[in-house]
Amino acid sequence: MPCNMSLSRAVVLGRNQKGRHDRAGGRAQSSGIHHHEGTAHVSVFRDAAVIMIDFIRKINSEGFKLEYLNFGGGLGIDYKHEGVELPTPTDLIDTVREAVKELDLTLILEPGRSMVATSSGLVNTVTGVKTSGKKHFIVIDGSMSTCIRPSLYDTYQHLELTKPSSAPKEVYDVVGPVCESSDFLGKDRELPTPVAGDGIVLHDAGAYCMAMASTYNLKMRPSEWWVDGGELKKIRHQETLDDHLRMFEGL
After folding, report:
1. If we measure between CA atoms, which residue out of 199, 210, 215 comes closest to residue 247?
2. Which of 137, 156, 139 has its CA nearest to residue 208?
């Protein structure tokens, strides 16, 4: 159900669906509803669940028997690394447990982001530091082509140098080499001043990095490595321009 659809409109659609169901001799079935919740806080989840439970009751009153209530959107993570305590799947389930039991529903949660987001980081190399007016920039070889989440959603992902530094700190925008004003991985970050060749890591890249990466501006996707104890194992080769051009061979 689209987020901006009213319950009354959804009920009308349910009636139309039931009409198609009946005309198809009972072969078409509606078995559940899916709700995408982008903010996985207990209070927001509870409010959304109340709306969805009311919706299910209305749909069931039209002759349906919905079996599933699916909450998408995943569970959040502590992107800012501030030690924030986030809800667990049990916390969310407890807010709707009795209502789900009452309607004999199977509740489905999609905790994917909380399971994979913290599993990897995007490691970049500093190519330079520059100042323009009052703004200071750390330029890296990574870009929005590899991790578009910060610029696409205007969201925070934690950045830090890959090794301790006693250099003076400054407030920087961390930007890439793609010629776009939106090519940044972080803005207004207080970091020790690096030098070319230093490493800088973007944390929590397991959910929105390679899954959304592109070859925009001919920035090829990077290699991927698996950390097994103290050992690194390459699990994906870095793409090259030849790899990209090979897709057009023989055409």
Report:
1. 215
2. 156
pLDDT tens for each residue of 160-207: 999 999 999 999 999 999 989 999 999 999 999 999 999 999 999 998
Other C-beta atoms within 10 Å of 64: how many?
Answer: 19
CA angle 133, 135, 138 (to 5 degrees): 125
**Annotated active-site positions, please?**
179
Please give the Cα distance from 122 to 157 (Å, whole number): 11
Integer Cα distance of 133 and 245 in angstroms: 40
Return d(Cα 8, Cα 222) in angstroms, integer.
Answer: 49
| Dist. CA 139–CA 48, nearest whole Å | 42
pLDDT, residue 73, reads 75
Closest CA relative to residue 190, chosen from 218, 217, 165: 165
CA dihedral angle for residue 18, residue 22, residue 28, residue 32, rounded to 10 degrees: 30
Residue 158 has which token pair? 């934690």
Pair 107, 95: CB distance under 8 Å: no
Nearest of 187, 189, 183 to residue 144 by alpha carbon: 183
Q: Would you call 56 helix, strand, or coil by DSSP?
A: helix
- Identity of the amino acid at 207: A
The token pair at 138 is: 């750390």
> Amino acid identity of 203?
H
